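Hi support team,

I've been running sequence recovery on a batch of backbones for a student project. Most finish fine, but this one hangs at about 90% for roughly twenty minutes before it completes. I'm not sure whether the input is malformed or the queue is just slow. I've pasted the structure tokens below so you can try to reproduce it. Let me know if you need the job ID as well.

Thanks,
M.K.
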């Protein structure tokens, strides 16, 4: 029996020629990604046990990104803990405030993470990096501590779900709509502890930013990771970051690999989709109901990239956000913020009445810079709409593509972005 991409990577990193789903393995980690929220807890565990060491300071990436710049004294202390540890241990790759942004998007653009490698982090959306043909997953602070100390993590080899997306989307339909459609079909636990492998001619034609959106949301279906095989698009992306094919290993699923589930999606039949509260699988067609919104949020590790900001600008250009709607746009990294400024996108947002914020995860999980109040209704390009996720438990969160968020901000209620072409 052949192996899937995920199985091959895990076999190579655990000293096995062959692994099967359900097998327990001790897996070597190529990279550990740290931020200021979950890492301090892991460091305390190590300190309390006299295990305060780092397996390799050159294989750790640290990016403060959740509550930055610090919103209060507690947040400042967490940031200080991460930064002092970085300095003490000589962590080579530290992307401080003003030089980084949202950790997952920062990492994907560095060229550090390569195809065929493994990555763990104390953050559920670490699966984002699977778009590079890598095995990337979030772990708890205890496993994070083990990875920092030993460079190894225990895994149960996951089963794999094959998602085959064929055809091409209608104008106005984005990768976010595709992944929301898939999660709607399979449910919020439909890929529980599985690797979600994306294939098909739609995926073949998709750029890397779109692929990152797909793999980023694997956790919203219960997945262990999302993954896309390496192809010319991946190779070109790595080459643009100075990484040549001899610096990484490509893994491809065998023709006789075994899949737990196969999901078939006709991209041409997918419409702009919105996940209603309070779960990402509660998807409906955008504009099905006239739901008034008070807030519109564009950002997060799912949809704060330059292509997302271009989609928003295309709709907002020459228009004004509806009275009563507060719109916040958060470029995912400092580099994306700068590029958006150079392209004139930030001016479009400001002219439309939106607030442009600094790179941060803050609003996405209700920490700061856009916390929702009682009974607020937010249309968001983020990845999670659980009760209390972005602020007050009574607030309503609707997940959508950046284009749908922009259209809804203009209308004042959840709208189909296909109704808004670029303004003359």
């Amino acid at each position: 029996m052949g192996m899937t991409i995920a199985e091959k990577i895990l076999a190579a990193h655990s000293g096995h020629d062959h692994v099967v789903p359900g097998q327990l393995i001790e897996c070597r980690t190529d990279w550990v990604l740290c931020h200021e929220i979950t890492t301090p807890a892991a460091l305390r565990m190590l300190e309390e046990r006299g295990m305060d060491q780092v397996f390799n300071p050159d294989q750790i990436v640290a990016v403060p990104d959740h509550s930055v710049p610090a919103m209060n004294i507690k947040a400042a202390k967490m940031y200080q803990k991460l930064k002092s540890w970085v300095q003490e241990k000589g962590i080579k790759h530290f992307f401080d405030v003003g030089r980084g942004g949202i950790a997952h998007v920062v990492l994907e653009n560095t060229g550090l993470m390569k195809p065929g490698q493994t990555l763990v982090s104390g953050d559920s959306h670490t699966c984002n990096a699977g778009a590079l043909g890598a095995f990337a997953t979030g772990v708890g602070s205890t496993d994070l501590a083990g990875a920092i100390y030993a460079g190894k993590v225990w895994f149960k080899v996951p089963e794999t779900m094959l998602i085959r997306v064929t055809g091409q989307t209608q104008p106005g339909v984005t990768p976010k709509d595709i992944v929301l459609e898939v999660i709607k079909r399979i449910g919020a636990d439909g890929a529980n502890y599985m690797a979600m492998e994306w294939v098909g001619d739609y995926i073949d034609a998709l750029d890397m930013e779109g692929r990152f959106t797909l793999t980023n949301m694997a956790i919203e279906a219960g997945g262990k990771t999302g993954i896309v095989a390496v192809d010319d698009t991946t190779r070109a992306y790595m080459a643009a970051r100075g990484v040549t094919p001899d610096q990484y290993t490509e893994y491809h699923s065998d023709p006789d690999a075994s899949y737990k589930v196969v999901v078939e999606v006709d991209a041409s039949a997918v419409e702009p989709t919105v996940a209603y509260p309070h779960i990402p699988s509660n998807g409906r067609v955008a504009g099905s109901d006239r739901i008034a919104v008070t807030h519109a949020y564009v950002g997060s590790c799912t949809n704060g990239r330059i292509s997302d900001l271009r989609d928003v600008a295309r709709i907002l250009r020459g228009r004004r956000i509806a009275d009563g709607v507060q719109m916040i746009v958060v470029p995912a990294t400092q580099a994306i913020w700068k590029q958006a400024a150079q392209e004139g996108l930030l001016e479009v947002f400001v002219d439309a009445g939106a607030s442009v914020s600094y790179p941060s995860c803050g609003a996405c999980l209700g920490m700061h810079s856009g916390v929702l109040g009682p009974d607020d209704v937010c249309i968001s390009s983020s990845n999670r709409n659980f009760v209390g996720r972005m602020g007050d438990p009574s607030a309503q969160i609707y997940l959508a593509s950046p284009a749908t968020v922009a259209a809804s901000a203009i209308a004042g209620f959840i709208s189909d972005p296909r109704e808004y072409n670029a303004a003359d």
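--
Follow-up from support: It reproduced on our side and the slowdown came from queue contention, not your input. Residues 6 and 195 are 7 Å apart (CA to CA). No action needed from you.
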